[in-house]
Amino acid sequence: MNKSIKRLNLLRQRVKQACISSGRQPGEVSLLAVSKWHPAEKITELNRLGVSSFGENQLQEALRKQRELTDLDLQWHFIGVLQSNKTRAIAENFQWVQSVDRQKILTRLSSQRPESLEPINVCLQVNIDQEPQKSGANPEEILQLAEFAHGLDKIKLRGLMAIPRVTTDPKEQHDSFRRVKVLFDMLKSEGHDIDTLSMGMSADLEMAISEGSTMVRIGTDLFGKRES
Questions:
Q1: How many CB atoms lie within 10 A of CB 192?
Q2: Are strands 120-126 and 196-198 parallel, antiparallel or unpaired?
Q3: Rounded to an integer, what distance in angstroms lies between the CA atom of residue 120 and that of residue 139?
Q4: Nearest-CA neighbor of 87 among 68, 111, 69, 63?
Q5: Hey, what domains does the chain have and what are their CATH numbers?
Q6: How far apart are CA 90 and CA 51, in angstroms?
Q7: Which residues does 15 contact at the CB level (< 8 Å), separation at least 6?
Q8: pTM for the complete prediction?
């Protein structure tokens, strides 16, 4: 069996089993293939197997791949640290941005999104454990950011993204995911029409799904070891 098929089948089985164990339907959780540092050929191979959403965190690398893969119907997500000098290229070339953490970036993405394109889909990144080395808005800033996003014409707020702290204590890890879900539900209760809770990666997707994730971001377990 082709390695890509085997990895994808194993991953889909993990997601399915995690959903069943949590009393959820497998269709509630989508897959974002994190393709950073992997060649365009691997993206093509996975696309032929039914994967259409790909996440990149290095802008120039992503733009190069997009140019190589214009013949494919792909959905590109920017998941890296957002700097002001990158927003125009991102607004022009991506369908999603999952790492928005401040008003300035929202304003620039909206103003730089071409009129010919639909509003860009945005997830607000929350630094749920307030780790100084990580990007993301603090939890108490999320509601204000969401309300600001709602007022921008070329922004479509879809939900939240989080990368909880790494810990060997399952209770602490569950707690981090659970607090992101609480924020997500709070935004919905405040009237925000959101549907995406992007959390969980290769090592912790089962835990994330059990706490309400609707999108898992998978790299190595899907592509194999990254190339230089």
A1: 17
A2: unpaired
A3: 23
A4: 111
A5: 3-223 (3.20.20.10)
A6: 21
A7: 26, 29, 31, 205, 209, 216
A8: 0.95
pLDDT in tens, 171-219: 999 999 999 999 999 999 999 999 999 999 999 999 999 999 999 999 9
pLDDT digits (tens, 9 = 90+) for 106-158: 999 999 999 999 999 999 999 999 998 999 999 999 999 999 999 999 999 99
Q: Where are the beta strands (DSSP E) in 75-148?
A: 75-78, 96-100, 120-126
Angle at CA of residue 165, ends 159 and 166, nearest 5°:
130
Query: CA nearest 115: which of 155, 158, 154?
Result: 154
In angstroms, the CA 77 to CA 95 distance is 6
Phi, psi dihedrals of residue 166, rounded to the nearest 5°: -85, 125
